Amino acid sequence: MGFVETAAVVGAxxxxxxxxxxxxxxxxxxxxxxxxxxxxxxxxxxxxxxRAASAADRMVASMERLTQQLALGRGRRAAFRGIxxxxxxxxxxxxxxxxxxxxxxxxxxxxxxxxxxxxxxGLACGLLFSxxxxxxxxxxxAAIGFKxxxxxxxxxxxxxxxxxxxxxxxxxxxxxxxxxxxLPFDASLRIYASHFDTLLSRELENARVQWSCGLARxxxxxxxxxxxxxxxxxxRVVETVVKSIRYGSSMVSSLESDAAxxxxxxxxxxxxxxxxxxVKMMVPTGVLILPAMLIxxxxxxxxxxxxxxx
Length: 310
Prior knowledge:
310 residues, mainly alpha
């Protein structure tokens, strides 16, 4: 091969490498832009929901999809038909805001599926060592998987109550300010719902629309909304509003005092959760970090003792 042919081959190779590098850079920039856009959309969605997505949220979403599949006649399993949801599912679903969105059948089937999946995972891990360990891990995995959907619903109940208590003081302040300006309770509540995009504002607006359209009385709509939250503070505020409207007493001062009480209760709850953090950190510290530190410190000493004994 002459010099010209060699130069042509080298030039073609360099050109192909340059084109491939440019295509790779274009693909990377496009993928980076897509990831950035997806992160923005996800951040906006999480900001609207008021909380970050977690394993409990994904479990609840799976139960919602399973409910839709069962409603459409798909996903039926004969082995799961005899499994019930257990007592308290209806109240737990209502407090989690999932009434009508997650059925008892879907909850029971999800528990069975998770029990089977976790038992299979425990069995596979245990078989790497011994049959006895495989049996123990399979039983433990089945128990853990069976409890996971209930844990997800209970977590959703707590997060929903905390979300309501976090936005309750500002709602009471806005409504009290509107009523001090001469507006009625309904108009003040509508102003709050139109200027704040939170879970509490959306549900209060839905309740206001219900009694405005005559679908329910005001006290029934408010008490029905309070029944969907596991919050004593919110229930007490609703009872104060209902009694003030029924007896015609002044509501502004009671709303302001309730706002201060709700703010102090939420602050006390946050302080309590912060105080529990060091106690919760003791478990991973004692299980993971402390043994590693002991091995690093005492490992050389034990090796010297063993070698000296031999």
